[in-house]
Amino acid sequence: MTKWLRSGRRRDICFLLAADGELRGQQLKSRLESHYDDRLEPKSFYGSLSALVDAGIVEKRTEGLHDVYTLTDGGERRVRDHYDWVRDCLEDGD
């Protein structure tokens, strides 16, 4: 696993993108806030997104006034690898 997926927030962002294909930044933030049942500081949240973009895991494009985010092929592979690892850990515990 790359160091960029060690952060729970970055990992959760990637899982949301894997599920939905692409999301606007505010949609991602709102979904995480709902999941965490807590407000996220915009600077911290967008810093996490920028780190994922800089690492080549997430791609950003501008669509009108909004930034839209999607996983790169490499990001998709990392999410799938992590999912397989978690599943294997849970199955081994049964």
From TrEMBL:
Which Pfam families does UniProt cross-reference here?
PadR
Instruction: Quote the protein name from its UniProt record.
Output: Transcriptional regulator PadR family protein
Tell me the first and last residues of the signal peptide: none
Q: What InterPro entries has UniProt attached to this entry?
A: Tscrpt_reg_PadR_N, WH-like_DNA-bd_sf, WH_DNA-bd_sf
Q: Which residues form the Transcription regulator PadR N-terminal domain?
A: 18-80
Could you read off the lineage of the organism from its UniProt record?
Answer: Archaea, Methanobacteriati, Methanobacteriota, Stenosarchaea group, Halobacteria
Highest taxon in the source lineage: Archaea
